[in-house]
Write the structure tokens for this entry.
Amino acid sequence: MRALLLENVHPDAVAVLTAAGVEVESAERAYDETELLAALPGVELLGIRSKTDLPASVIAAAAELVAVGAFCIGTNQIAVEAANARGIAVFNAPFSNTRSVVELAIAEIVALTRGLTRKNADMHAGVWDKSAEGAHEIRSRRLGIVGYGNIGAQLSVLAEALGMQVLFYDTADKLALGNARRCASLDELLENADVVTLHVDGRATNRDIFGDEQFSRMRSGALFLNLSRGFVVDHHALRAHLESGHLAGAAVDVFPTEPKGRGDEFVSELRGLPNVILTPHIGGSTEEAQQDIGRYVAGKMRDYVVEGSTTMSVNLPHLALPPRPDGHRIAHLHHNVPGVLAAINGTLAEHKVNIEAQLLGTRGDLGYVLTDVAVDYPPVVLDELSAMDETVRVRLLS
Ligand SMILES: NC(=O)c1ccc[n+]([C@@H]2O[C@H](COP(=O)([O-])OP(=O)(O)OC[C@H]3O[C@@H](n4cnc5c(N)ncnc54)[C@H](O)[C@@H]3O)[C@@H](O)[C@H]2O)c1
């Protein structure tokens, strides 16, 4: 089996795949469509990061492609529908950088609460000002976390360990960790928190949920952080509340439009404010997160090719059977219509193939069946399973 890993994927990914017997070729940069079309013949596993676009035309042409690993968080660069049509599994690493985001948020909360952005600017301008005015400890201050998911919940634990009182608001029913207090509404959180930090997900309904009305509800002198999604916040309104002095400071890592590449100009209403920390979407960008992403995504790809496991796949039904040292496993991906399982088992029964373990999962238009059988069966079985009208892809794992 051959893998092509683009965009300088972490070496741990190479190690995971090589240990599984995969021949790995790596490239430092992203490939464009022409380069992908030339490189993909004979490649079963493709690893990319966010700069390689994988359009439907490339997916349709990549005859041997079995799985795509997005060694990053998002998968917008991949034509996932086209991957579904060809039965190509797509994996990503949605949680590998959770800790990195949390640590940046903590650093920013401390820096803003202490007024470090101003002190730092003063010092660089040759101004020595030792005054404690406006500088606070974070101990006992109230942190309001909006979105209590992976990042929000981990931030809650760390902030509490530093002595903060944690409030949170989530649209879903979330268990409060430690002494964190759940707020019944966003308004309740905004009216009570000294620091408001956004960690909501990127669902479409979260567009512009945070504007003048929400900033106005916040306490005078409060701080605001957004390390979630750029389109969630109205930056004109944020600037107005910072300039009026209603908010004491802000830290923003994500923007409605972000420059495409290194060196491109960053345009934002938030530039030039002394009490605002601006970072170029680096909440999750640490070497530790990259290493974890490398290990995680390569591990998912390996488990898919070796065991048929689709756990945490972006597009296929989630399914896993325990590893199978002997015998064969048939992985059957099909259109999710009634009767496919019966047809598969009918074919196996007709050829007197005994099923030793079996699992079916469905997701949207796709169904996936893993079937463990003894080694002794006629090869025509696989031909017949492949020839079924509903079949998208059949793989024999042994
Ligand atoms: N800055 C970065 O580099 C960086 C890195 C990783 C993740 N992120 C972003 O951080 C965000 C959080 O990531 P996560 O892994 O914790 O996601 P998650 O899906 O685990 O958690 C999101 C939580 O927000 C809640 N939520 C959604 N909409 C809400 C709303 N309107 N009000 C209140 N709660 C709401 C959900 O119920 C969920 O509990 C995501 O948007 C993610 O893309 C940014």
